[in-house]
Amino acid sequence: MSTFARNILGGGLKSDTLPADLSFEGETVLITGATSGLGLEATVHYLQHGASVTITARTAAKGEQAKLDIESRTGKLVDVMILDMDTFEGVKTFVNTFKKENRHFDIILLNCGVQEFVWKPSPEGWFANIQVNVLSTTLLGLLLIQWMRSKPEQSHLLFVGSGSHWENDLSKWPRKDIITFWSKEENFMSGRDAYGISKLMLHYCVNAMDKIASAGGKISPIVNTVCPGIVQTGIARSFGGGVWGMQCVAKAYMALALKAVPADVGARSLVVAAKTTPEQHGTFRRPYLTDDEYEKVSAPFFKTEEAKEIQAEVWKEVVEILAAADPEVSKIVL
Ligand SMILES: NC(=O)c1ccc[n+]([C@@H]2O[C@H](COP(=O)([O-])OP(=O)(O)OC[C@H]3O[C@@H](n4cnc5c(N)ncnc54)[C@H](OP(=O)(O)O)[C@@H]3O)[C@@H](O)[C@H]2O)c1
């Protein structure tokens, strides 16, 4: 059953709550894409629970605006770094700054993501969703895992995935050149389909990164994917060409038909996921499905021979693209 049907029948998806004794006192948190939506609201929660938070923004102006908003709401200071995930160079520049400043974070939340409603190429030539949600996020994840594993402290690396990863039809996926196929304009189906395709690819890549983060029996960092359910944010900003009236339609549709929850409610999932234990390394955190329910809906995308082949091919292609963009990748993915 699709998320849509579940919501209509079930009256909305279940959200996480924040435990009364939740504390991040003394912990440092990095949140990417915190200029709006879930990232911004997660920042507020982390600050209110004692963490020191650094956020990323694409531009200094956007970062300053988010900083003012967050600081006026919480009375706490927030640090801003620049990260543009449209290009591999943007990711590499960010990680180099990070290393030069010898930064350590206890929790890193890779939240940046896009949902394009019309086909749009990235400056690197890939479909924009694939660039940001898959390729740049995986490059960032790999470089961070390498960095985090070099530190003695245990840390958490969270990827914001999506339940839309199981709203896919693998029979429409080619067996070879998958990234190129789904980056072509003629293969763009709809904003919803294209988003689900990119998020399934991300879940495939995180499954491979989980293994890198637990190589040799040493789990560091603890890696998880998390989805808060359907949340009212700016994610559908390109719907209807970004025209104001169409934005209102998109927001009304999300609220009434999809029963999306407010961003501060959804963001709780991106906060409680940072409390996973090493035993929970590699698991997908979501408040709205039991393990049995998730097993049932996700099995066709991970457990069948066809799915395993596609997953392996996606990972192989992603690594090839990333290794060409940054030779460091070949040293991390052995
Ligand atoms: N909303 C939902 O129902 C839902 C459900 C499940 C998962 N998610 C996931 O949650 C994450 C946050 O999305 P959201 O719903 O909060 O949407 P949002 O309000 O649009 O926030 C997306 C954030 O990502 C940043 N971003 C996008 N492209 C970027 C790029 N190329 N480089 C750097 N930053 C970039 C945006 O910055 P700008 O302001 O500069 O664009 C913004 O800060 C995404 O990964 C999304 O897929 C959302």
From TrEMBL:
Keywords recorded for this protein, A-Z: NADP, Oxidoreductase
A Pfam family that the UniProt record links to this protein: adh_short
SUPFAM superfamilies documented for this protein: NAD(P)-binding Rossmann-fold domains
Residue stretches in coiled coil: none
GO MF terms held by the record: oxidoreductase activity
InterPro entries in UniProt: NAD(P)-bd_dom_sf, SDR_fam
Family named by the database record: Belongs to the short-chain dehydrogenases/reductases (SDR) family.
Stated name of the protein: NAD(P)-binding protein
Lineage, top ranks: Eukaryota, Fungi, Dikarya, Ascomycota, Pezizomycotina
